[in-house]
Design brief:
mainly alpha; two-stranded antiparallel ribbon; 13 helices; 79% helix; elongated
Length: 284
Amino acid sequence: MNGALYLAKRNTMCYFRDRASVVFSLMAVLIVVLLYLLFLRNMLIQSYPDMPGMDQLMDVWVLSGILGIVPVTTAAGSLQTMVEDRANGRERDILVTPMRPWEVAGGYILSTFAVGLIMSAITLVICVAYLAMTGCPMTVGGILVSAVLLIPSALSGSIIIYAITSFFKSTGAFSGFFTVVSVLIGFLAGIYMPMGTMPGAMQTIGTLVPASHMAALFRDSLAGQSLSEVFAGAPAETLAQFRTEMGFDLSLGGFAFDPATCILYVLGVTVIFFAVAVLRIKHR
């Protein structure tokens, strides 16, 4: 177990020492913020005229979605060290040590989890500070729930991205994968465009992505108070339609996910990908 901890410490330090890697791992977040401010914000607000507080609700909606994708993009950025180890032959030195396959996988996953959790926590603080300055209604309970949700979010992102990255052998292939993930994850999580406006196939794919479920959970916890105030006098059908269209409520094949089933789904997919990661290490 000590070997896994030392490996995790080394990988975490490598990530934060490379400032360019930190910046590029947040590329998806920067793209979302720019698109939202330049194009999406006014369009979304104008879709619901005569509803006071809709501007604040849209702000917390997009920021909650960002919290759902930060662990994914930062996980991909932090795993650059693993790919470089493989390309440069340093991985052989690790594999010939007495460390078991699950310890090697655990070392890389633990460092990626730490990176995702730290970056997510920083993002949450920035988001809450911005929403507080703009007067967006929030509750202390909602903020605390969001802080707790950072743990399964970072764990899921780190394990899933690690399992996928374990199939890459060159830095070129990893760079291509990193670029695709940085751009695609915003669409799949329903941030670049609301989930309800996507074609049916894209909605299905997006619902299968664990980051979409985490984004929905963050929206429920952070935007709950704002949502209640904006739709206080609106019919229940209007609120239900808004929640479905904007990705607060997810469904798949007629099955509606509630917060508990969202967490169970994320954890179940995470366990499957961890098993894949361990099998990859054994194979190597």
